[in-house]
Automatic annotation (TrEMBL):
Subcellular location(s) per record: Membrane
Membrane topology category: Single-pass type I membrane protein
One GO term (biological process): protein import into nucleus
Annotated region (Disordered), positions in chain: 87-130
Domain PSI span(s) in chain numbering: 1-54
TM ranges: 59-84
InterPro entries, per database record: PSI, PTTG1IP
Stretches with biased composition (Basic and acidic residues): 91-130
Chief localisation class: membrane
Species name: Hippolais icterina
Encoding gene (name): Pttg1ip_0
Keyword Membrane included in the entry's annotation: yes
Entry protein name: PTTG protein
Amino acid sequence: DCRQYTNRSCEECLKNVTCLWCASSKRCMEYPVRRILPPADLCELRSARWGVCWVNFEALIIAMSVVGGTLLIMLGVCCCCCCCKKKSKKPDKDDERAAREREKRRVRQEERRAEMKSRHDEIRRKYGTV
């Protein structure tokens, strides 16, 4: 029973993990497990201690909010970075059109080269320079 540690020390009260220490009233009581936070009529958040004596619920809530917010922001940034990388790797319509045009120009130039080579070969044969 947690009440037996009332008016003793916080350390003694919190040896039992089901106990909650209220520093303002120096009471040790059962932690209200049906609620996440102890109600204000039981003990103020800045006076409530659970688990360790050096952290009150108010500081714990603030610290967990900061850590949780930071994690959410980091997750959002990572998702944005991944989405941007995928979009940049995927060629858009302009890039595809430019690549098709480059390929057409290359094919036409090769055809012209082959045609010029055959003409030059004909001229060489005609004048016997081959």
